Structures
1.
Amino acid sequence: MELSGWVQDEAYRWRRPPTGAMRVPAVIYASAALMAEMDDKVAEQIANVATLPGIVEAAYAMPDAHWGYGFPIGGVAAFDPDLGGVVSAGGVGFDISCGVRALHTGLRVGELRPLKEALADTLFGEVPAGVGSTGAISLAPAEMDAMLEGGAAWAVARGYGTSADLVRVEEQGRMAGALPDCVSDKAKNRQRREMGTLGSGNHYLEVQEVSEIFDRAAAAAFGLAQGDVVVSIHCGSRGLGHQIGTEFLRDMAKSAAGFGIALPDRELACAPLTSPVGERYLGAMRGAINCAMANRQIITHLTRAAFARIAPEAELSVLYDVSHNTCKLEEHQVGGVPRRLFVHRKGATRAFGPGHPDLPSDLRAVGQPVMIGGSMGTGSYMLVGAATAGERAFGSACHGAGRSMSRHQALRTWRGRAVIDELAGRGILIRSPSYRGVAEEAPGAYKDVTAVVDEADQAGLARKVARLKPHVCVKG
DNA sequence: ATGTGC
């Protein structure tokens, strides 16, 4: 990235004072090394976000930021509805409410080893994965609406898991304010048979070992010890969220000029939070949040079924479930004054610090679990929201390693079969319907997740708790 | 991300 115009005001923080149409500064949390590696497009896009009406404090980018549609992936921006603030479909992204759910298994890595092959095959058989994958569930229109309003709580009411699961899900598994009538029939039809499916791209289900502990107290509060086996599920709202994103990007691009909004980039299409189109988007997007949480809840149920056949002694409980593509109304202190703001997080995880009232009572003292997915071979991390996260970036942190190479470039560089063999040699079993998908997701196509996580920690966004080493990965 | 797209 070209660094002119940026001021390094801390070791892990860069600030660009407002120029031109920017209403607030742009801030990127990264070291000089990651900043240099970062795409120039991130600087351009985050500065564009800073021009949007009603933006508060600054437009932020996380250390894993990369070029996205309109907003960078790894972008965080908050808007005040009373100051003409906007909601942007591009600020949430196409994969609405994509997120990570982590599960305890009650197993130790020694117990996992002899079962790995069978578990990989059974999970791959049980959890549909890949482009256009469908499941055993088909939702009639009334059930679709109930799902869009009820989220993971709807799934539990239908027998997929238990109410105890919901305690550890963001919003207790049900996002209030969803408006199924604002979700098009086309979006609903696309989703009809996609509940309980992983999808494609960077989505996965992994069986992982807690390979290193960095923060004993937080790990203990999360119920994690070295050698424990956990499951991470990374997926979103499938075709429904994608269709909602597509339709509202189009509608917002059409209506922006009528609201007097000058867009620096058509992809930044947005609408006032209080406008009819803005309110319809929020209602539809909250339905997609419920869809994603219901999806991860059903996949949890399928994962339990797979473990029950291979390792009946396993007991799978939810450690935490949090999204990284959302726009949510939250209270934040701005200059010591509490304000209610709509926080966009696109490829950025909510990371509330200790004491936040929205956290489950047994985690409140330590802070919110923050799951960071790495690439297939490199491992993942469990972090905890830092006490300073609220004032640094509206209680947000990074969400993954971030791509360092385009999908196209990755396809030219690797063969899926060879990637699978190489990882198998290191004890990491991949199961995927698509060699092409595996090649696109080759570990070498991603940044070093350890560097990204270290910088989120050093920047005061989220502290490292544990490292997770992959053993089995079901990949879309 | 996606009933993948030039």
2.
Amino acid sequence: MDIASSQVFEAGTPAACRSCQARHGVVCGALSNGQLKELNRHSLRRKVGAGTEIIAQGAETSFYSNIMRGVVKLCKVMPDGRQQIVGLQFAPDFVGRPFVRESTLSAEAATDAEICVFPRSLLDRMIAETPELQRSLHDQALKELDAAREWMLTLGRRTAEEKVASLLHLIATHAEPQTATSTAFDLPLSRAEIGDFLGLTIETVSRQMTRLRKRGVILIENSRHIVVPDMDELERITS
Amino acid sequence: MDIASSQVFEAGTPAACRSCQARHGVVCGALSNGQLKELNRHSLRRKVGAGTEIIAQGAETSFYSNIMRGVVKLCKVMPDGRQQIVGLQFAPDFVGRPFVRESTLSAEAATDAEICVFPRSLLDRMIAETPELQRSLHDQALKELDAAREWMLTLGRRTAEEKVASLLHLIATHAEPQTATSTAFDLPLSRAEIGDFLGLTIETVSRQMTRLRKRGVILIENSRHIVVPDMDELERITS
DNA sequence: ATCGCTGTTTGATGCAGATCAAACTCGGTG
DNA sequence: CACCGAGTTTGATCTGCATCAAACAGCGAT
């Protein structure tokens, strides 16, 4: 399950990363053609199944990734097992903590995903040489900081109903296919994961979902597929 | 009360910022002598009283600051008045959101403080020209991100008692004068502010403080001055 | 001193969400 | 098909924190 396993960089075939050449991803967009070529020689595109741990909490990291497809959750767990999701990342986000060897959180694929994996040492060097890349990662860090703080407000001050509505709004906003007002999307998270993101139990999440359904705010096609007839209505509940 | 008032930069006397020359602060440590001189010509050291709003939520910001002394709280408030503190900043932290015109949160002096104020346009230019400054601000953003995520765990998954212990631990860690195991410090926050940081009410904060006192974990010399006989004991409660 | 104001503590009661428990759904498997 | 197990929903009850209410402490102004 460990993406960092040595065969990735040593025994694996370092295939060119076509997506990166196409300038997807936070990292590749900021590089020169020469750098991109070098990065491609040492990077590898990987498909990972839902639930795969990409980075372990407390472990040394030897690589960074770009998310090319799918959703990755960032998790913190306490010694007694209590758990909190502290961020959701979507393509084309960057995963990894520049400059610091040890990760204070775990990153896990929430859905099946494709990621583009770079050796840490190489990317650290490129960051140091490329102000534009530094800037690009700085931007992402600030974006994540805003998201984290917005979520602190949700965790600290919103009711269970508002929390669930906020989560649905967040997912809907990041899901691609949207019509004018109505939106349909797949939830990348189970009820348990939603609970861990919102600081609630499974049961409370479930109850709030059915309350929203009974009020006509959402349709639950199945537990993972949601339709929102009117996004404004959902946003209103968010507060 | 508005620090950004025009007289600061137009009518005020732009005194040299001695602290910055001494390389305090996140910004000044990363600049060349020439840049520092230019920055000094346009920056101003200001004393602000506790409660002064430095940046208003939703307002355009025309300046950044370095905290030279005191504590600054970062706040988000909801339309209905519910409020969440999303960060505490101590000297020599940087205050302001690079690259973005409008602030999504307010910054307010929690204690009497001294800050070093720079015009936004000038510092933005220096960031663009100075990779080391970019790096320095990037580092701070990552540090704040780690802190925000750690606090998300506290908000989502810790009990009231653990929350209060976590806050005391946080403050104790950032307060300067510490003996080997025992620590004494001033709380920079009122009970109401602590509640807004922890997602609790004033009453619950107060009750948990007296519980910790009765158990001998802390001494409350007065409501703002705390002694922790054994930091390990406090840390244990934090979980 | 006495007043009045603001912040804090303490007490009594209520309720949102946790916990405990059981039924239901659905996709996979022998 | 029946069976199983994991995930989800629903119901009954409990509890930690919120809410409502009142006393208390500190402190500047008169």
3.
Amino acid sequence: MQSCCLPGPFLTTAVENRASRPAPADRLCTMSSRPLSSGRRADLLRMSTLFVRTLREDPVDAEVASHRLLVRAGYIRRAAPGIYTWLPLGLRVLAKVEAVVREEMNASGAQEVHFPALLPKEPYEATGRWEEYGPNIFRLKDRKDGDYLLAPTHEEMFTLLVKDLYSSYKDLPLALYQIQTKYRDEARPRAGLIRGREFIMKDAYSFDVTDEGLAASYQKQRDAYERIFTRLGLEYVIVSATSGAMGGSRSEEFLSPSPIGEDTFVRSAGGYAANVEAVVTPVPEAVPYDDAPAAHVEDTPDTPTIDTLVALANAKYPRPDREWTAADTLKNVVLALVHPDGRRELVVVGLPGDRDVDLKRLEAAVAPAEAEPAGDADFAAHPELVKGYIGPKVLGPQGAVVETESGDKVSAIRYLLDPRVVTGTRWITGADEQGRHVFDLVAGRDFSADGTIEAAEVRAGDLAPDGSGPLELARGIEIGHIFQLGRKYAQALGLTVLDENGKRVVVTMGSYGVGVTRALAALAEANNDEKGLAWPAHVAPAHVHVVATGKSAEVFEAAEAIAGELVDLGVEVLYDDRPGKVASPGVKFADAELLGVPIVVVVGRGLADGLVEVRPRVGEAQQVPVADVVRVVTEKVEALLA
RNA sequence: CGGGCUGUAGCGCAGGUUGGUAGCGCGUCCGCUUUGGGAGCGGAAGGUCGCAGGUUCGAAUCCUGUCAGCCCGACCA
């Protein structure tokens, strides 16, 4: 555990925990999420001297509960937009979250390292990310005009470090991690710690020779993540995700379900869960079309939208069996893809008229290209596209063909269909002339496309691809993201090892992140009520909050004794020893509820009868004889930490 | 980057249209009282009214510019 202590002034040898001051900043060493069995005397925090100021009113700039309450309870203060200062209580919670992460990472076999947050640009130029990140990273110059950045993530550094030291397959597999402050110049920081410009992340990387090795390393990390979030008491959902700009293959996100989450995901009762971008549409069976009537073009004046088209179709060309609906129409949406080389390509996505294109899903499907709705200039360049009446006749294989540089013949306008548009399905769609639509156009008989694409919006009630039933949509806070990077970074930076045949092979990598500060925010988000925070015991700034009320010396002496005995037994105590003239009972109770320590012990008027009150932050209070209170509370704490 | 809103005491806000020596609540400090649900009374400290220019005898207030922050959206391992 040499990695536990920071060097220099943080290296504290002996800590007098009974001191009336908060523990010094050797948080990495004294903090632990372990139960009481260690037998070490625990911290005693005194409200009279603790550096904290609770706010009676909500901070005006805080919207979400975690942000509002963390500021109100004196855990954090805003230093700049998206940048927060940690006060003693907040730092204790943060250290406990870190401790859980650290313990589970170590248990998984990963080894802790620590990179600088301030880095030269060269490694990021080698992978192209100096450019790719654009304005989203903090850049700065040294006195010699050299370019530096505040690292948003450290793939390059890990890769180069391993390259620096290792050169044989015998050295692998290897997993390294760090818990580091990261910087991103977010266009819009929000929701306090949930989306900051400075945040703490645990990032881990695995290094393997083979794909099988990577799969095993990935699974180890995935297991570790499950243990981390379980121990933190944080509900989580694992969803399939797209790997996005990072490249790579398999990717999963750990989401903490919350209405204020920024990620939309779907899940089925049967256990399927996926990020919306990654949802795969179940492909229906092809339908026979032998008895289908021939396609016929009809006049449909003034029907540039699906709604107007459906209304007119029902009025003028009614269906015998039922009404036409938007789902009977084939909507052809023109989009422009911008490829990384700057090339602009027009594509048309054909999908049932009752659905819209989800740009994020589309982009996930066409990555690394970016997508945007086609503009007037695009339509001007393609007069065959009649706005509002676009049909397959001019698209894809049916349309014009151009020859590429390599001599292949491809569609001038690529036509990509939603997977629901299977062979045999019949559609009303544009006839490629103003005011005309074609009816009974059969997919596979009358038209075909260049391929299918997952670009249609996902809706509640859609079926899960694995047959596990209908999907519901939910929001979540992304607290972890793991993926199999593959060889992208190793290739770009030349990380190779010699295999058993003496052949040079490129190492394959996995990348595993936990948003530590974000997980803390998610915990606050999931554990609060109208009165304040209500921490799970493993991460609470203390296990027990002892409150002394009244003015008699006996009350304070008894409370002092109880607090002292508890810390001797390893129970962390926050002791409200403020004199009555400084804080009334009402103030103390309100603060206890706001601060959210899981067990509150009230020493006050009941003392005359030999009783103190033990109040869980959530649950029923009970009167306990003074003589028993230390035992009762210790048992409760042990149960909470078990 | 687009839309909306806001900058006045540590915090939350009023004042601004009608220019005239800056106010309320909470908090802070002193004194007395109170002591199981954010106490009462009395006294006190605390503000370049975001910044810069302008109009005016006089600007928190009117005009111009500018900066910052928050919220929504776009963006976003």
